[in-house]
Amino acid sequence: MVLAHILTGLLASLAVAATFTQTPTGAYSTYAADSVISRGQGNGLTNGKPQVNYPDGEFQWALRLLFERGGNQSYFGWIQAGVNRIVSSTGQISSDYNLSAYTLDYLRLGPSFIYLYQMTGEQKYKTAADTFRSQLNTHPRTAQGQFWHKLIYPNQGWLDGIYMGEPFYAAYTAAFQPTNQTAWDDIHLQFSLMYENTVQLKSTNSHNTTSTGLLYHGYDHSHVQSWASPDRGHSPEVWDRALGWYSMALVDVLGLVPASQVALRSTLASQLQSIADNLVKQADNVTNAWWLVLTQPGRSGNYFESSGGCMFIYAMLRGVRLGYIKDTGGSIIAAAQRAFGYAISNWVIPKSNGTMDFNNTVIVGSLQPGNDYEYYISQQIDINDLKGVAAFVLASYEIEML
Ligand SMILES: *[C@@H]1O[C@H](CO)[C@@H](O)[C@H](O)[C@H]1NC(C)=O
Ligand SMILES: *[C@@H]1O[C@H](CO)[C@@H](O)[C@H](O)[C@H]1NC(C)=O
Ligand SMILES: *[C@@H]1O[C@H](CO)[C@@H](O)[C@H](O)[C@H]1NC(C)=O
Ligand SMILES: *[C@@H]1O[C@H](CO)[C@@H](O)[C@H](O)[C@H]1NC(C)=O
Ligand SMILES: *[C@@H]1O[C@H](CO)[C@@H](O)[C@H](O)[C@H]1NC(C)=O
Ligand SMILES: *[C@@H]1O[C@H](CO)[C@@H](O)[C@H](O)[C@H]1NC(C)=O
Ligand SMILES: *[C@@H]1O[C@H](CO)[C@@H](O)[C@H](O)[C@H]1NC(C)=O
After folding, report:
1. Does ligand 2 lie within 6 Å of residue 39's CB atom?
2. 288-312 pLDDT, tens per residue?
3. Is the pTM of this model over 0.85?
């Protein structure tokens, strides 16, 4: 099985090698990934201690794509070494994992457990995946059935949580319970509720028909949070990274759902189509990049943020390439290519030792009391934040696959 994967990857790499976007050291995807690895990032440790860390899961997803395309065993090795730091030889997950804290973030590592089990057959990875899967059986939900983002955020659905939970839920179901209809229907429910509760609708005020058609960061089903809108409970702004996570979840879960799940596939594809079409309209018409706060284009303090933008490029290009969405007139691919041009000119910083830095990733954005426009623009940006540079690897990979 391992050999078959490598051969497939090598053949695929010969086919696309001629079209790679060139850098001083090769394609941008491997330039960025090799830089992350040379800095020791995404290795399962935080401050020297094992930690179940969702950006590692995002980076491992990107490394898997690179490994399967080009056959570089170092990428597979980095995934396995990172996971081996948080999963013991008997399949115990490191002690920072607390099932009873009911945090969806942990689960983003789960697809790597399943992948390693499939590639190596080692039971410890299956045992660890089973532990994560058991969290979902008792994870608290809203009255409608949406998983709470975390136990400490009762009744709240965040777009971020869909990316943390659903690729794992779908990967587990596809691998071990492909005929569990309850699970597929539950995944369908998670996406449907999140979309319906957060999509920005046109105002019912006939004088104001402005709407991005995109998704607010999250919602509070109980409407008790200070940031919850009185009518629907959604938060006040569309934040680029939350929508980026959601867009990647749509495209990645579409890659996992069997063709027989027609209704689920249709929901995911139509959501992705609408988001991609609306993102084309929301790209800034001078720079071609997307604003940190998509609902406030051009407002003082707003800026072009790098993690969300790269997530959009990946989701849009992958959605078109794999035939999940239509790109009538080529506007989606064109918008993604223009935005990628902005990314490499503005956020990639070549270093003298042959690696690159990646700039302008906002460190955090969360739905705390007081969440508003000023909150988002006041958060620090960082260089080489793994959430951003992993998204850049994914975006570059899809640009190279065009
Ligand atoms: C394989 O990946 C490693 C780790 O990033 C990198 O150092 C190496 O140059 C890559 N090898 C090839 C042949 O690209
Ligand atoms: C390049 O320099 C960075 C620090 O700026 C360092 O973390 C990294 O390990 C170096 N990589 C190589 C390949 O020398
Ligand atoms: C796990 O999380 C629960 C819920 O927050 C908490 O009550 C418990 O003390 C935590 N356990 C550990 C070992 O931290
Ligand atoms: C199927 O999925 C549902 C929903 O997650 C779960 O409650 C149930 O235990 C699963 N069935 C089996 C046989 O594991
Ligand atoms: C128009 O409606 C949108 C969506 O409800 C709202 O976000 C925006 O603030 C409104 N604009 C004005 C000028 O009222
Ligand atoms: C760019 O968008 C702004 C509004 O955000 C608009 O005023 C301007 O006319 C547009 N420019 C072009 C060249 O389309
Ligand atoms: C990173 O981006 C920030 C904000 O755009 C800028 O102030 C800073 O100079 C950039 N850093 C580098 C090393 O280019």
Report:
1. yes
2. 999 999 999 999 999 999 999 999 9
3. yes
Q: Considering the chain, what percentage of its residues have pLDDT values greater than 70?
A: 93
Instruction: Tell the residue nearest (CA) to atom 13 of ligand 1.
Output: 72
Question: SS in 3 state form for the chain?
Answer: CHHHHHHHHHHHHHHHHCCCCEECCEEHHHHHHHHHHHCCCCCCEECCEECCCHHHHHHHHHHHHHHHHHCCHHHHHHHHHHHHHHECCCCCECCCCCHHHCEHHHHHHHHHHHHHHHHHCCHHHHHHHHHHHHHHHHCCECCCCCECCECCCCCEEEHHHHHHHHHHHHHHHHHHCCCCHHHHHHHHHHHHHHHHHHECCCCCCCCCCCCCCCECCEEECCCCCCCCCCCCCECCCCEHHHHHHHHHHHHHHHCCCCCCCHHHHHHHHHHHHHHHHHHHHHCCCCCCCCECECCCCCCCCCCECHHHHHHHHHHHHHHHHCCCCCCHHHHHHHHHHHHHHHHHHHCEEECCCCCEEECCEECCCCCCCCCCHHHHHHCCEECCCHHHHHHHHHHHHHHHHC
Tell me the CA–centroid distance for residue 360 and ligand 7, in Å. Answer: 7
Q: Which ligand is nearest to the CA of 139?
A: 4
User: Which residue type sits at 226?
Assistant: S
Going by alpha carbons, the residue nearest to atom 2 of ligand 4 is: 183
Instruction: Take atom 6 of ligand 6 and give the residue whose Cα is closest.
Output: 285
Residue with the smallest CA separation from ligand 2 atom 14 is 353
Q: Does the pLDDT of residue 51 top 50, yes or no?
A: yes
What is the Å distance from ligand 3's center to 244 Cα?
A: 30
Which residue owns the Cα nearest ligand 6 atom 1? 285
User: Cα(200)–Cα(197) distance, rounded to whole angstroms?
Assistant: 9
Nearest-CA residue for atom 1 of ligand 7: 359
Task: Tell me which of 199, 206, 210, 231 to substitute to probe ligand 5's pocket, judged by most ligand atoms within 8 Å of the beta carbon.
Answer: 210
Distance 182 CA to ligand 4 centre (A): 6
Reading the block at residue 271, the tokens are 């959501």
Determine the pLDDT at residue 163. Answer: 99
What pLDDT score does 323 carry? 98
Who lines ligand 3 at CB under 6 A?
A: 98, 100-101, 151
